[in-house]
Amino acid sequence: MKYDSEMLRKKIAAMQGITAVNKDHDGYFQPSMNQGSGSAVLRFLPAMPDEDFPFVRIWNHAVKVDGKWFIDNCPSTLNQPCPVCESNTALWKSGNKDLASARKRKLYYHSNVLVVRDPKQAENDGKVMRFKYGKTIFDKIDAALNPVFPDTIIVNPFDVDEGANFRLRVTQNGNFPDYGKSSFEQPSPMGDPEQVEAILSQRTSLAGIVAPDQFKSYEELKAKFDPIIGAAKVA
Ligand SMILES: [Zn+2]
């Protein structure tokens, strides 16, 4: 029988309890987690020629009430009114601040990235994928662009020549992944001009992520959300 290194690698990974989470989910990069931690080296890519920014930002609700989940994009992303946000504001004003905090909208960012190195999923190395991230990682991008200390050089992480690779490090904080240990490496060019061109040609448009058709109407969201919180009131 022919020696199949790929099969062997997968077998070893399975034995070590490595889970490849949503590996190819819509072309989004997900680090493999092994016993609560994961890592990879990514490179944030610049904006597409016809798009203004190398990221889009989207508000999202993920609310669990009595075991039922309400998960949907929040129309406040497009400066539209949102029944879930309104409900939270009412909760907050009525003094129910813990519940309001637990249900509040969360901000996510989407970017194109080059997977420089994925130690647990070598087949991802060199691939251009999308990456969804939250405030912790965005704050690190912001800190690179707007350093607090005057003796720190300004780095635009999205620059192909003067940007820097991003060391993604994920640890487990209770039930939530924690990206706080992630950091940018020293600035370095992404590659030679031919490599850069080949990488950039694989980016995908981000505009569709926040297109109006990605958001339910106020009425649809209300019809979906009210029964969920209604059930909670009875309990
Ligand atoms: Zn909302």
Named CATH architecture: Alpha-Beta Complex
Summarize the amount of helix as a percent range. 25-40%
Fourth CATH level, the homologous superfamily: Replication Fork Single-Stranded Dna Binding Protein
CATH class: Alpha Beta
What topology emerges from the helices and strands here?
Elements: H1 5-15, E1 38-44, E2 56-65, E3 68-73, H2 83-93, H3 97-102, E4 106-117, E5 128-133, H4 135-145, E6 164-173, E7 176-178, E8 183-187, H5 193-200, H6 218-234
Zinc ion binds at residues 61, 74, 76, 82, 84-85, 105.
Describe this structure in words.
The protein is of the alpha+beta class. The chain has one domain (21-230): Replication Fork Single-Stranded DNA Binding Protein (Alpha-Beta Complex). It contains six helices and eight strands. The chain has helices spanning 5-15, 83-93, 97-102, 135-145, 193-200, 218-234; strands at residues 38-44, 56-65, 68-73, 106-117, 128-133, 164-173, 176-178, 183-187. It is globular and about 55 Å long. It starts with a helix and ends with a helix. It binds zinc ion.
